[in-house]
Amino acid sequence: MFPGSAGHHEHFCPTDGTLIGRLPESSPADVERAFAKARVAAELWTKTPLSHRRAIMMRFHDAVLNHQKDLLDAVQWETGKSRSSAFDEVADICLTARYYANSAKSHLATRKRQGALPLLTTSEERYVAKGVVGMITPWNYPLTLPISDAIPALLAGNGVVLKPDHQTPFSALCALKLLVEAGLPRDLFQVVIGDGPTVGSAIIDNADFVMFTGSTATGKLVAGKAAARLIGFSAELGGKNPMIVLDDAPLGRAVQGAINASFSNAGQLCMSIERLYVHEAIYDTFVPRFVDAVKGLSIGIGRDFSAKIGSLISAEQLEKVSGHVKDAVSRGASVLVGGKHRPDIGPYVFEPTVLENVTEDMMLCRGETFGPVVAIYRFHSDDEAVALANDTTYGLNASVWGSPRRARALARRIEAGSVNVNEGFTASWASTDAPMGGFKESGVGRRHGREGIIKYTNIQTVASQRLMNIEAPGSMTGDAFARTMTIGLRILKRLPFRH
Q1: Chain center to CA of 396
Q2: Which of 236, 274, 368, 423 is the catalytic position?
């Protein structure tokens, strides 16, 4: 990481309050120097053969698997999440590294494009690294979000300057160590530590492209600052994600799917389900089974796989989650299970919670809770389910459960960047060849797939002209040239289009 000059910040474990370590905080001048250093390294890196970059990512893939215990410990230590949720991050990094190492060549290959005049004009499309990408990442997935976003940026030939959340910097630092050991040039990937208003703003002031993951409110500020500099940005923002359970859904799988989608990482997941819509014909069967399954979830803060639900990240997050639940209950919502803070387990542990009778006047109804809380509602028809699911300013993820043909047809009507059929969120997230991102106020741009690497490049067209210029010859009048071109355009219309 880049040595900071703005003092030091102490980082504590959220489950027991022990000191993890002290890291130097960066000033805006430190951020500027980090970009300068990464930019020098990127000038050499972009000339490095793609085959060499690919080999580094494959070695990194193996190193992550070989050192997964240390990485899992680091993630749990600074987030308090369950070990199963921590392993999701390890798996995601490996999927992403393997995918882009194998696909970057085809994504970045120069492409022939149809020229202006057949036989006379040739045109090609090239992908040129932007330079140095600035990344600002949140605390909820401190390993996967920084590293899985950095992998395609690096393979595209860029340098990276990362500002991880000030609560969770160590996971990314551990992974960066493995990247360097795998052969990544040390100066190419810089890490700066500090708060968002100071260090995050400095990132945007110096970056050639910005990748941001966080709240919609902050994303709008990032968009404004990026627009002022006319630089590109990509942002995955908030969600209030719906799950629809149709009357022909496989009930056992749907119950388990709702558990995983609602309570993975204690609900601290942009793609988690917070609104659960169940068809009236199966509501009275589904809900008791779902509630019983929630009651059976194990809660704990141990460094093993025994607990399904871990801790929230902080007192601030606990206050937000408990505040949403208390407000809903005070206005008439019913708690079917959970609803309580569990300091006997850990200082920020909150029970997985299911609420019924949630209404529009409650904060929980439309606001992103970002905790282990889901509200459950009845619906009467497919059209009503779609209308309810789409009645939000967000559009990140959705889930539909039912017979495959019916569920897929309904899924295509949902206004969300990812829609999972008979799954909660993992199917779309783990399909790394497919783009992932949000509609409406849930984001701009995409990660994963071709879009997830091309966004880190400037697209250049190189067109070559043979034999004659595309203009009237010196001896031809403008009127004659226009008539000749008109004939040519009519002929071109009849020719097959080659893409």
Answers
A1: 10
A2: 236
Question: The pTM is what?
Answer: 0.94
Domain CATH number, residue 330 = 3.40.309.10
Q: How confident is the model at residue 470 (pLDDT cuts 50, 70, 90)?
A: confident
For residues 353 and 323, the answer to whether their CB atoms sit within 8 Å is no
Claim to verify: residue 48 and residue 170 sit in the same structural domain: yes
CA gap 107, 335 in Å, rounded: 49
Q: Kindly state whether residues 65 and 96 are assigned to the same domain.
A: yes
Domain span including residue 106: 8-237+448-458
**CB neighbours of 330 closer than 8 A, spacing ≥ 6?**
none
**Pairing relationship of beta strands 121-129 and 457-465 according to DSSP bridges:** antiparallel
Residue 377 · residue 389 · CB < 8 Å = no
Does the annotation count 94 as an active-site position? no
DSSP per-residue letters across 136-174: E--SSSTTHHHHHHHHHHHHTT-EEEEE--TT--HHHHH
Q: Which of 78, 89, 270, 351 is catalytic?
A: 270
- Sign of the CA dihedral with 214 first, then 216, 221, and 225 last: positive
Query: Has 270 been annotated as catalytic?
Result: yes
Provide the terminal-to-terminal Cα distance of the chain, rounded to the nearest Å: 45
Which domain-ending residue is among 406, 437, 468?
437
Residue 476's pLDDT band (cuts 50, 70, 90): confident
3-state DSSP assignment of residue 218: helix
